[in-house]
Specification:
The complex is a heterodimer of chains A (261) and B (112). By secondary structure, chain A is α/β, with parallel strands linked by helices. Chain A is 29% helix and 22% strand. In chain A, strands 6-5-7-4-8-9-10 form a 7-stranded parallel sheet, sandwiched between helices. In chain A, strands 1-2 form a two-stranded antiparallel ribbon. The chains are: A alpha/beta (261), B alpha+beta (112).
């Protein structure tokens, strides 16, 4: 904007000199005028403040709602699995497939490699790997892209196995129906208090690798208590994917939830 | 961290609003960041300053309002600010719903 006369910059603005001062203005007004009332399509003349009040992740949230429509159209329950790396998300899915009773497919998110999708495919279930590159989370757009590579028809449950990370994935609705957060015994019972945003998003807390409890100072009651401080309604299931402990309860939970979709 | 992704979405939103208002430049961006939104304000500031260059927000001032966690009690119907991450009513111990402090909002844009 011209500091001397207050006229505005139009599209195709250029700079020129006239009357001894420099300013930017546009063409397209016919006879050049500083009388703003005569502008057919007035530009902003002065700094203008507008109230926006929109969620910064609004576009993601709209996409997430669209993803849910996808799942609902196919009668599939969609579950977002989140946890730190190595807490047993893929192993849980393998055990779930081995148990039988739910037909599942998996959208896998990792920074690199197809290893997780390959493990699911090896068990005979459909899987699609999203390599996020440097991105520390999945968002609704990535999951939507993954859905186009996943035959949802005939599936009971579609899992989104998020990038292993207790921070960033918590901020993104990926369009699933509920969130499952895994906490493995070797990680320690202090994690819910340390990562409140993640554990607050949990609809279900899965305490994994429970057969290791005798070897670690992990207080199950404390982990549950800390998580319920954040989210009093959270359901808790204790599992061990290797021995199969708790997998029956977990599969029944999925079946019950799926029957309600 | 995901602050860079958040800023990309924010910049797109600023560009869209500028277009709708025939503005050529955004001078000031005000956001509200919830204490439990999962975003660290100083990292968001750094991300914004890095990515704003050569966008409509180049040179724009970035103002972050950090929003406390505000809950409403379903039992005594009082509103409170939660100091600790224990989601019960600090006044009566009742069940609460979060009214503010978990989301990130673009609040206000100053443009010309």
């Amino acid at each position: 904007m011209c500091k001397d006369c207050g006229c505005t910059i139009a599209p195709h603005a250029h700079t020129h000199e006239h009357g001894g001062h420099t300013h930017d203005h546009g063409h397209g007004h016919g006879a050049h005028t500083h009388s703003h009332e005569q502008h057919p399509n007035p530009q902003l003349n002065d700094p203008k403040t507008i109230e926006v009040i929109t969620k910064i992740l609004d576009v993601n949230d709209t996409q997430a709602a669209h993803n849910r429509e996808h799942f609902e159209k196919h009668g599939a329950l969609a579950v977002n699995l989140m946890s730190s790396p190595g807490s047993g998300k893929t192993t849980l899915l393998e055990a779930t497939i081995d148990h039988g009773g739910v037909k599942l497919g998996v959208i896998e998110g990792d920074l690199e490699t197809n290893q997780d999708a390959d493990r699911i495919l090896a068990k005979g279930a459909p899987a699609h790997q999203i390599a996020t590159g440097q991105a520390c989370h999945l968002d609704a757009h990535m999951v939507h892209e993954g859905l186009h590579h996943m035959p949802i028809d005939g599936l009971d449950v579609v899992f989104v196995e998020n990038v292993g990370n207790l921070v960033c994935p918590a901020s993104y609705d990926v369009g699933t129906h509920f969130n499952v957060v895994l906490l493995s015994v070797p990680e320690g019972d202090d994690k819910p208090a340390k990562y409140p945003v993640m554990f607050r998003t949990a609809d279900v807390l899965l305490i994994t690798k429970c057969d290791l409890l005798p070897h670690f100072d992990f207080d199950v009651e404390k982990a549950i208590k800390e998580t319920r401080k954040l989210n009093p309604k959270v359901d808790v299931i204790e599992v061990d994917s290797k021995s199969g402990k708790g997998i029956d309860t977990w599969v029944n939970y999925l079946k019950m939830k799926q029957s309600l979709r | 961290m995901h602050e860079f992704s958040i800023v990309q979405d924010l910049l797109h939103m600023c560009e869209k609003n500028a277009q709708e208002n025939n503005a050529n430049k955004i001078k000031k961006v005000e956001v509200k960041i919830g204490k439990l939104s999962g975003v660290e304000p100083h990292l968001l500031q750094t991300a914004f300053d890095t990515f704003k260059e050569k966008t409509i927000c180049d040179g724009a001032e970035f103002v972050i309002h950090v929003q406390e966690l505000v809950v409403g009690c379903r039992k005594c119907e009082e509103e409170s600010v939660l100091e600790k991450n224990t989601f019960v009513c600090p006044k009566c111990g009742g069940d609460v719903e979060v009214l503010d402090g978990e989301d990130m909002y673009l609040m206000r844009l100053e443009m010309e």
